[in-house]
Amino acid sequence: MAGSPPTDEGLIFRHAQLLRIKACVFGDRFMAFSFKKAAHNQYISEKDIKVPWYEHIKYAFENLAEDDLLLTAQVDFHCYAWDPNQDDEDELEVRPQLPNSFFVRVMMRYQQLISVSSDENTLKTCPYHLHDTEEERKACPSHRKAY
Ligand SMILES: [Zn+2]
């Protein structure tokens, strides 16, 4: 994550988040949808609107379907939380490798963000979770939590 001190805990969390994305890719390829849903939702909840690492964005955009909700979440989390001054050397090194489709989606999202009022501009994690039913979504602890 941009700006995080490189503590062991930070490195473990970073690695765990990448493994969750890899688990989503595995879940897609082997049609293990419950497995994918669990990994996806854990990625979203653990992430809690923090800037995704570039390595994770690169991996997700190269391995998940264009319409995968995780890509939308990465774009939105980046737009809401990114601070260019917090990119450390590792992030700066990976930045040029980011996929063009990520930049295009970031451009589109920024345009949407500046065209709505600030009241509508709060981000919740639940819209980025995979839920099978409306009841399940309503029962989600982050359903009403705004940021
Ligand atoms: Zn939810």
Q: What labels describe this entry?
A:
binds zinc ion; about 150 residues; mainly alpha; 7 helices; single chain
The largest β sheet comes out as: none
Q: Approximately how much helix is present in the residues?
A: 55-70%
- Intertermini distance: 19 Å
β-strand percent reads under 5%
Number of domains: 1
Q: How many separate helices? A: 7
- Provide the gyration radius in Å: 15 Å
Helix and strand run: HHHHHHH
Oligomer: single chain
Characterize the structure shown.
With 147 residues, the chain is mainly α. It has one domain. It contains seven helices and no strands. The longest helix has 22 residues, at 8-29. The radius of gyration is 15 Å and the shape is globular. It starts with 7 loop residues before the first helix and ends in an 8-residue tail after the last helix. The model has no long low-confidence stretch (mean pLDDT 89).
In short:
Helix content is 59%, strand content 0%. It is built from 7 helices and no strands. It has helices spanning 8-29, 33-47, 54-63, 69-81, 89-94, 100-114, 134-139.
Task: Give a topology summary.
Layout: H1 8-29, H2 33-47, H3 54-63, H4 69-81, H5 89-94, H6 100-114, H7 134-139
This protein binds zinc ion.
Zinc ion (ZN) is lined by residues 126, 129, 131, 137, 140, 142-143.
